[in-house]
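Case study 2.
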Amino acid sequence: MSEDDAKVLAAADWGVPKSAWESTGQEASVKAVDCNGTPLNDGDDVTLIKDLEVKGAGVTLKRGTTVKNISLTQNPEEIDCRTKEVKGLVLKTCFVKKL
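Prediction:
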């Protein structure tokens, strides 16, 4: 099945409008923001605003812990980072504040 066939089936079966498949050329870029609404970028330093229990690691990251050199993910609500205690950590942006 080609991509065009899938679009026709989606429009006919599920009522998806054709405009949903068309690109307008202006992609809506969703930016990651911290708890205060400040935009986050790759390489920023952030601090935790509350104690967080890390599942599977048996570690609690305390409020005020600084996380350096974050990486943004495809999901604007998550960031990749590492701390001294936990490597390869994914945090929700609602729990961090940009320094």
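Residues 3-13 form the longest helix (11 residues).
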